[in-house]
Design a protein that fits this description.
single chain; alpha/beta; Rossmann fold; seven-stranded mixed β-sheet; four-stranded parallel β-sheet; globular
Length: 361
């Protein structure tokens, strides 16, 4: 099962330190209301997904956060902490953030709860259902349509638009999820939840974009002295780990820029997954586990399959599934969309063995 293509897998020499450089998150108030439901997501064993295999896989179902994704965690952490610090004032401050979708939804929910105005800067790749959710929460949606001339991607253009909007506002706040250490600190709790349930975990696979999840996991494992191997799943064509950039269609993982939260030693290994492989991963999750997952979740599932030949016999693995698939039914799960952009997927391609034949961009 899985690919043995070494070009898609990068092993990294890491050095775990014994202390964390992240400031612990203090709750703004006693848990109450919808935000009390953020975190504590189920950890479920998936025994069909890679059958037959010689390792166990547990899935952390982050789609069951109230806003529908793992991004609820940093959204809650950032806004609540900055309200505590006085840098965000409900009724006066406007938050402006660049988002491919899920962080925007997480922020929209938190801002609605606290009464803070929000502008989400998105691009044409943001799924229409997400745009509808943002507007329903009361967020203003600002759509950037021009590609960055250097990278031919939207992210740099979105970030420039964020700065333009901040310049126009008298009291604007930029969460800057790519550099904000509260993003990473929020995920110390995510990995703590996993360790508290399973005790010993041999491998954790997580998608990477801002590097918030990866950084938080790294800091917790370092401080705890645990030897769990962190495997980052990145998009083929992403700039995070130094690979050549190329156009990508599926949002949620990968980045055109190297985030400030990134450190060279965060991951023990990196697996690069193409858009097509993400589509296959989504369909394998649906077909084998009846789990309707988003694109980055499909990427993580495919990443494990590609890395499977390196997983030790009898190992316990955890996969972080960041979001749900309902918001992608007219793209990732739509046959016409897949045919238009990828030439379709034949039935025989929907298998882990097909990843060995997949390209790199």
């Amino acid at each position: 099962m899985g690919s043995r293509n070494g070009a898609d897998i990068k092993l990294v020499e890491t050095e775990r330190r014994s202390e964390s450089h992240l400031t612990p998150i203090e709750p703004l108030e006693a848990p109450s209301g919808i935000l009390a439901a953020v975190g504590g997501t189920p950890l479920v064993e998936f025994n069909r997904l890679y059958h037959p295999s010689n390792f166990r896989v547990f899935a952390k179902l982050e789609a069951l956060n109230p806003g529908g994704s793992i991004k609820d965690r940093p959204a809650k952490a950032i806004v609540s902490q900055e309200i505590r610090a006085g840098r965000i004032v409900p009724g006066r401050t406007t938050i402006v953030e660049s988002t491919s979708g899920n962080m925007g939804v997480g922020l929209a929910q938190v801002c609605k709860y606290y009464g803070v105005d929000l502008i989400c800067v998105v691009d044409p790749k943001t799924p229409r259902p997400i745009l509808s959710v943002l507007r329903t929460y009361g967020a203003q949606v600002d759509i950037v349509t021009n590609l960055d001339s250097e990278t031919e991607e939207y992210l740099p253009s979105r970030l420039r638009r964020v700065q333009e909007l901040l310049d126009e506002l008298s009291d604007g706040y930029w969460p800057d999820q790519y550099s904000n250490t509260l993003n990473a600190a929020a995920h110390v709790n995510t990995i703590r939840e996993i360790i508290n349930v399973l005790g010993t975990v041999d491998y954790v696979f997580c998608a990477t974009s801002t590097c918030g999840t990866l950084r938080g996991f790294f800091e917790y494992l370092s401080e705890s002295g645990l030897t769990t191997e962190l495997v980052a799943v990145d998009a083929a064509g992403s700039a995070i780990f130094g690979n050549p950039a190329c156009r990508r269609l599926i949002p949620g993982h990968g980045a055109t820029i190297v985030p400030e939260l990134y450190r060279p030693d965060l991951a023990d290994a990196v697996v690069h997954v193409t858009d097509r492989e993400s589509l296959i991963g989504c369909r394998m999750l649906l077909g084998r586990e009846a789990y309707l997952a988003g694109g980055s979740s499909g990427a993580v599932a495919a990443g494990v399959a590609k890395y499977a030949h390196r997983i030790r016999h009898g190992a316990t693995c955890v996969i972080i599934l960041p979001d749900r698939g309902e918001r992608y039914v007219d793209t990732i799960y739509d046959g016409s969309w897949v045919a238009q952009h990828f030439g379709g997927l034949r039935e025989e391609e929907i298998s882990w063995s097909s990843l060995e034949r997949a390209g790199t961009c």
